[in-house]
Amino acid sequence: MRQYSGIGVLDKAMTVLHAVAEQPCVLSDLCERTGLPRATAHRLAVGLETHQLLARDDAGIWTLGPGLAKLAANLPDPLAEAASSVLPRLRETTDESVQVYRRDGDRRVCVASAEPLTGLRDTVPVGAVLPMTRGSGAKVLAAWADVHTQRALLAEAGYTERQLAEIRKRGWAQSVAEREPGVASISAPIRDSSGVVIAAISVSGPVDRIGRRPGVRWAADLLAAAEAIHKRL
User: How many C-alpha atoms does 151 have within 13 Å on its Cβ side?
Assistant: First the structure.
């Protein structure tokens, strides 16, 4: 439920911002959604555009602006903070690369990683964007995604609906040479404080070293690390 501060101009500006966040729109639609007079809605939208909180294309359609992302970038990430205290221990246990991925639409983003100090490794830096169509991390995130997202992903994915059901039952996923030739991985879900799956934790490395059945080696350790992050959240 929306909250109001009692500061008229601020509350109206936030009403405009929320209306555009709900769906990009032209000025006439913005007036209809907010109930504001056309002049008022336009003045507030232009002001928000000046501060890059809204943006407008050549067709006059208002969208959220880049300033919001810049502000959000300064927010602490509880998931990354929780993972930072768990991943080093998992890396030491496995002596392999470890990562945490969060789904962003039809892709996944690495939000935390830890690499072994020596030897051949599967380096995935923080901020790396990977597909949601292949790899054990992608399969875990897809397995616990909503039905609409699953259907959209399955149209392009290398996994099936049946495989996702098996992953939910087993509690983890593995892959061999799916995302990258010669690389194997195993992933498990990370849940937030309410039990909702919000990310995937992974161990990855060369197939020649990690084997073609990484789940046999690392499932227990991976699930323990996922639980440790869950508790910190």
Answer: 3
Task: Yes or no: say if 178 and 134 are a contact pair by the CB < 8 Å rule.
Answer: yes
Helix (H, G, I), strand (E, B) or coil at 157: coil
pLDDT in tens, 66-106: 888 777 767 788 999 999 999 999 999 999 999 999 998 88
> What is the 8-class DSSP label of residue 25?
B
pLDDT for residue 15: 94
In 3D, which of 211, 191, 96 has the Cα closest to residue 140? 191
3-state secondary structure of 116: coil
Do the domain assignments include residue 2?
Answer: no
40 lies in which domain range? 8-72
Helices 38-50 and 8-22, interaxial angle, to 10°? 80
State the Cα–Cα distance between residues 72 and 76, nearest whole angstrom.
Answer: 9
Q: Do 21 and 130 belong together in one domain?
A: no
Kindly state the tokens that stand for 134.
């292949």
d(C-alpha 222, C-alpha 98), whole Å: 10
The torsion defined by the Cα of 109, 114, 116 and 120, in degrees rounded to 10, comes to 10
CB 64 within 8 A of CB 74: no
The residue out of 72, 88, 122 marking a domain boundary is 72
CB neighbourhood size of 195 (10 A): 7
What CATH number is associated with residue 19? 1.10.10.10
